């Protein structure tokens, strides 16, 4: 399979043409930060509505605008070629476009945005779209816009705001802009919700790191706890950015939170991505919906250190190939569940809490030892802090593989790569850090070079950042997988000034500081004498 380097940011886009109104220009211009401007404008409209509630209001309307834009563009094409075909739903499904009934089209809602009954009209539109597209959208769309708690004036203003997105662009460009806005809103609401937001959203820079390292060009991609589907969106974007096309990868996932599952379905639909995303209350451990399938790439950000996952029915589960995980922590259950689903040539990237690299509680140390001895742990990456909305717990990336001697790459059996990326990243606000494109490329390129990919640069250990280690060395460290134990200290550039000169300069500075100190002491003593004299008069 050919490989390539990430050479450009897939989020980059040229600015669309401005509309005639200044307000629309500000909202619609796709320059750096326009998504943030749009989010802040929308956030002002929510007033006293909680972010956890408002996100469904805003995201549902963006979704409706997106599919309506795609539908109306195709409808206009068909009207020119064959007006009769324009009313045939199959003509749209063949192009992966949802059929949108007339009363559900955005133009209809926009024209009635200032109506006191706009909430009811939106609910009816959502119901009509689900009815017209039951296989893809049944039970997915929010349908409670008509409730009294939602101010109709606020809904009208939000429709006006969303109507401005991509105005003046081509239909294809407008849909791309809408997709970017949808993705940014997911992150914005995750930040606004704090800990709860982390349940449905993995920070984009973390997802890009996983995707850039695994390079999912073709094959099956799986996420057993998929949240809002960010792993899948980035995977498809990676394929398209590197010369592939939508559909080169087949997407599978599972999610136990029904509300989050709905967000994932909408997120993928906005991108025109087909996927088999399953939902059930039990979750991937108790009810593995895809237990007979194996996957080429697995990307996952399981909830950290889950303590209430165990059930007696899991006692003899065949997934526990390296040991039964402790009932009080699901970290090693997730790793083994993922390994169970990995194809013979598959690779996986998993986000876990840092404790997973060194914990010896219960059976965790023994499971980790067996995994290392089985030579399935490929690479460990220590991440910088403050990357996540939901927790300040330091995190790491595990990379697992079924084979370390694939065709076309070097034989790395008996070796592991450790990357310490804790010093990377840039603070984007007071509490949160992001990995830059350069940071992501540095981590990914190091991994590709170490694997010996055909178009990668030669690999070299970099003190303080990365080191290739034998399994014997890992054993000497008690099978602890913390990168800091292996990469050593960063090299410090040697000072070219001779020691005698440096010592003389330091001695001179010290003497000057002593003299200044004596002078200051004399002034203080004199001042104290004056105070005593005044008090005694």
TrEMBL record:
Belongs to the N(4)/N(6)-methyltransferase family. This is site-specific DNA-methyltransferase (adenine-specific). It catalyses: a 2'-deoxyadenosine in DNA + S-adenosyl-L-methionine = an N(6)-methyl-2'-deoxyadenosine in DNA + S-adenosyl-L-homocysteine + H(+). One of its GO terms (molecular function) is DNA binding. Residues 174-495 form the DNA methylase adenine-specific domain. GO terms for biological process: DNA restriction-modification system; methylation. InterPro entries: D12N6_MeTrfase_N, DNA_methylase_A-5, DNA_methylase_N6_adenine_CS, SAM-dependent_MTases_sf, T1MK-like_N_sf, Type-I_RE_MTase_Subunit. Residues 35-149 form the N6 adenine-specific DNA methyltransferase N-terminal domain. Keywords: Methyltransferase, Restriction system, S-adenosyl-L-methionine, Transferase. Its EC number is 2.1.1.72. The keyword S-adenosyl-L-methionine applies. Residues 1-22 are annotated as: Disordered. The keyword Transferase applies. Coiled coil: none annotated. It comes from the Bacteria.
């Amino acid at each position: 399979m050919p490989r390539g380097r990430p050479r450009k940011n897939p989020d980059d886009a040229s600015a669309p043409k401005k509309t005639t109104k200044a307000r629309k220009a500000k909202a619609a211009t796709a320059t750096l930060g326009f998504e943030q401007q749009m989010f802040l404008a929308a956030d002002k409209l929510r007033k006293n509505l909680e972010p956890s509630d408002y996100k469904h209001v805003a995201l549902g309307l963006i979704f409706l605008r997106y599919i309506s834009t795609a539908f109306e563009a195709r409808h206009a094409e068909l009207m020119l070629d064959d007006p009769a075909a324009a009313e045939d739903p199959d003509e749209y499904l063949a192009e992966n476009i949802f059929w949108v009934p007339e009363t559900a089209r955005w133009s209809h809602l926009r024209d009635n945005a200032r109506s006191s009954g706009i909430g009811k009209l939106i609910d009816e539109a959502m119901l009509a779209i689900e009815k017209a597209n039951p296989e893809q959208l049944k039970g997915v769309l929010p349908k409670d816009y008509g409730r009294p708690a939602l101010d109709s004036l606020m809904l009208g203003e939000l429709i006006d705001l969303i109507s401005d997105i991509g105005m003046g662009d081509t239909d294809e460009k407008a849909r791309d802009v809408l997709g970017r806005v949808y993705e940014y809103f997911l992150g914005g609401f995750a930040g606004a919700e704090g800990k709860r937001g982390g349940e449905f959203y993995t920070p984009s820079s973390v997802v890009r790191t996983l995707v850039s390292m695994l390079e999912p060009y073709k094959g099956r991609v799986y996420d057993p706890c998929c949240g809002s589907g960010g792993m899948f969106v980035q995977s498809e974007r990676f394929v398209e950015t590197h010369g592939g096309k939508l559909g080169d990868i087949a997407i599978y996932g599972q999610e136990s939170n029904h509300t989050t599952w709905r967000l994932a379905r909408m997120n993928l639909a906005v991108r025109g991505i087909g996927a088999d995303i399953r939902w059930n209350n039990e979750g991937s451990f108790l009810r593995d919906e895809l237990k007979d399938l194996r996957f080429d790439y697995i990307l996952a950000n399981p909830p950290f250190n889950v303590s209430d996952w165990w059930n007696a029915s899991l006692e003899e589960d065949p997934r526990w190939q390296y040991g039964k995980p402790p009932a009080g922590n699901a970290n090693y259950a997730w790793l083994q569940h993922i390994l169970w689903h990995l194809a013979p040539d598959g690779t996986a990237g998993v986000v876990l809490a840092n404790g997973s690299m060194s914990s010896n509680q219960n059976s965790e140390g023994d499971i980790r030892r067996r995994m290392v001895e089985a030579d399935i742990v490929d690479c460990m990456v220590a991440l910088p802090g403050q990357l996540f909305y939901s927790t300040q717990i330091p995190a790491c990336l595990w990379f697992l593989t079924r084979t370390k001697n694939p065709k076309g790459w070097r034989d790395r059996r008996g070796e592991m790569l450790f990357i310490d990326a804790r010093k990377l990243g840039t603070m984007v606000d007071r509490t949160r850090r992001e990995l830059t494109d350069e940071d992501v490329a540095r981590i990914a390129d190091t991994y590709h070079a170490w694997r010996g990919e055909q178009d990668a640069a030669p690999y070299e250990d970099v003190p303080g950042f990365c080191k290739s280690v034998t399994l014997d060395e890992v054993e000497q460290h008690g099978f602890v997988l913390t990168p800091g134990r292996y990469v050593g200290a960063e090299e410090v550039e040697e000072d070219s000034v001779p020691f005698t000169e440096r010592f003389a300069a330091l001695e001179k500075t010290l003497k000057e500081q002593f003299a200044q100190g004596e002078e200051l002491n004399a002034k203080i003593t004199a001042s104290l004498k004056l105070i005593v004299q005044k008090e005694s008069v």
